[in-house]
């Protein structure tokens, strides 16, 4: 399961940022806030999740679902959110099918 740490690293890579400090500045959060996300002491709020999605060039709903999985208080709730994330991901992959050189649609693997 992708967590805050994964998305923070992806944002740094996509934006070629040298440090968590630079990422914190770009997001408008404190460096200790980034540390708390990385250590699992806190999770992105919706506004931060959407900012990170834009930095990562991914669908914001993916991160919003992932944060709900992380916030879930019990295994049953976590399983429900994980299932919804998986359904969303499968549906989104089929909506974004790339065309091959002949113009035919081919599923992503």
Automatic annotation (TrEMBL):
Q: Name one GO molecular function term.
A: DNA binding
* PROSITE patterns the record matches: HTH_CROC1 (PS50943)
- InterPro entries found in the cross-reference section: Cro/C1-type_HTH (IPR001387), Lambda_DNA-bd_dom_sf (IPR010982)
- Give the species: Burkholderia cepacia
Protein's UniProt name = HTH cro/C1-type domain-containing protein
Q: Where is the HTH cro/C1-type domain?
A: 22-63
- Mind telling me which Gene3D superfamilies this protein's record contains? lambda repressor-like DNA-binding domains
Domain of life per record: Bacteria
């Amino acid at each position: 399961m992708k967590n805050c740490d994964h998305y923070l690293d992806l944002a740094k890579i996509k934006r070629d940022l040298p440090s968590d400090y630079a990422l914190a500045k770009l997001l408008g959060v404190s460096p200790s806030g980034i540390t708390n996300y990385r250590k699992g002491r806190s999770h992105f709020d919706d506004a931060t999740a959407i900012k990170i999605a834009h930095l990562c060039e991914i669908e914001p709903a993916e991160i919003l679902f992932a944060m709900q999985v992380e916030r879930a208080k019990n295994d049953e709730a976590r399983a429900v959110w994980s299932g919804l994330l998986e359904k969303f991901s499968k549906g989104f992959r089929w909506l974004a099918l790339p065309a091959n050189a002949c113009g035919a649609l081919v599923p992503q693997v």
